Amino acid sequence: AQSVAQPEDQVNVAEGNPLTVKCTYSVSGNPYLFWYVQYPNRGLQFLLKYITGDNLVKGSYGFEAEFNKSQTSFHLKKPSALVSDSALYFCAVRAFNNAGNMLTFGGGTRLMVKP
Amino acid sequence: ETGVTQTPRHLVMGMTNKKSLKCEQHLGHNAMYWYKQSAKKPLELMFVYSLEERVENNSVPSRFSPECPNSSHLFLHLHTLQPEDSALYLCASSQDMDRVVDEQYFGPGTRLTVT
Fold first, then answer.
1. CB contact under 8 A, B42 and A49
2. Ramachandran angles phi, psi of B83, nearest 5°
């Protein structure tokens, strides 16, 4: 079985500071990892994904994520946070040998960026 | 916009009512999904359709009945719901169910309140 953990319910950051939203995963086989963002009263929007290759993945809105196989982590990062980045962030994993495109989501982390 | 639309955006219904949620995707995708998002709980996958055939049903109560008349449309028929069914219902689509690298595209959701 595959699982995703987002250990922080909420992350608070001052505008202009770097941000990190943590994600760890557990799968058998090669992991395929995704980050989504959800703004209030909206559905989830795809940010970025790790499939293979470079461990540092760049995505939308200046976000990036680093895949670390030894630590089974895929933390989301941004060098300089904006107030408009405040939202709910979800990490998701899909294992290579899983039948069908079934994503397993973490519980979400609320990011609050204060001016 | 993600190319996935959902109607209605908000729905209030009594426990004896029958209503339907509608999802439409304009992306030419072959797979469609229903998710339930409740407060303080991870996203729950409810149903998966691939090329209009149901391929996954995650032990969802029979008071939820999906329908996929074609690859662009997905419905969720609701009857005799319970107050604990109140949640945000999200529809998503992806190019093909079996492609591990594909991200899913989400609609804005229907906020359902059962009174």
1. no
2. -55, -30
- Residue in chain B closest to A44 (alpha carbons) equals B106
The answer, for B103 touching chain A at a CB cutoff of 8 Å, is yes
Q: Which two tokens stand for residue B37?
A: 């998002």
pLDDT in tens, B75-104: 999 999 999 999 999 999 999 887 878 899
Tokens representing residue B78 in the block: 């609701």
Contact A33, A50 (CB under 8 A): yes
Which residue spans within chain B are E strands per DSSP? 4-7, 10-13, 18-25, 31-37, 44-50, 53-57, 64-70, 73-79, 87-94, 105-106, 110-114
Cα separations in angstroms, B46 against A14, A50, B17, B90: 37, 25, 21, 10
In the numeric block, which tokens belong to residue A5?
């953990």
Each residue's pLDDT tens digit, B17-42: 899 999 999 999 999 999 999 987 88
